[in-house]
Amino acid sequence: MKKLFFLCFAMTSSFIQSQNIDIVNTKKDIGTDYWRIVNDDVMGGVSRSNLTLDSSSDILFKGYVSMENNGGFASCRHNFSDPKLEKTKAFKLKIKGDGKIYQFRVGTSESYASYCYDFQTAKDKWIEIDIPTEKLIPKIRGRHVPNAPSFDPKYVREIGLLIAEKQEGKFALLLEYIKAVK
Predict the structure, then answer these.
(1) 3-state class (DSSP) for residue 116
(2) Which of 25, 30, 50, 175 suits a disulfide with 59, CB 3.0-4.6 Å?
(3) DSSP character string of 4-66
(4) Is the separation of the CB atoms in 153 and 23 below 8 Å?
């Protein structure tokens, strides 16, 4: 009976682990390249941000959001091809923030809209955030797009993080991982 329990536990544990796909995992050196910054300067704003790896090899997204010149956002984006995410039911992030509100964004090859989810960080504490795909809202330039195609994970080509919502001032967000949960 003990052998059967161990075998069932081992099979279940293996099955559960195989259901997560690392999109970004700094501890495994996955997804730490091919990031880019997109700030409000693309529309005349003066916000600034950058990405680095901190001393623990986590991704540090930090900068300053300015409301000058009708600005007010900073973002970072990670592009990839053929992610094999077609059966994704949720995304899981492990982050350490500054108490501000950020947005997780997913871009697809099938829509101009980004599929977005806002989340609150805890100041100086690591937290995990679970984002069911049905909670992703299609947006363009911060506005909801009700006629956008439904989110389909098989078309995911980009993920990103954004800070906006008139949160002027310094910001800092550490990212350890983003996983697709099937």
Answers:
(1) strand
(2) 175
(3) HHHHHHHHHHHHHHTTEEEEEEGGGTBS-SSEEEEEGGGGT---EEEEEE-TTS-EEEEEEE-
(4) no
Phi, psi of 106 (to 5 degrees): -125, 125
Tens digits of residue pLDDT in 67-100: 999 999 999 999 987 778 999 999 999 999 999 9
Residue 13 lies in a domain: no
Residue 124 domain-assigned (yes or no): yes
> Which residue has 């916000």 as its token pair?
47
Domain that holds residue 155: 21-181
To which H or E segment does residue 3 belong? helix 2-17
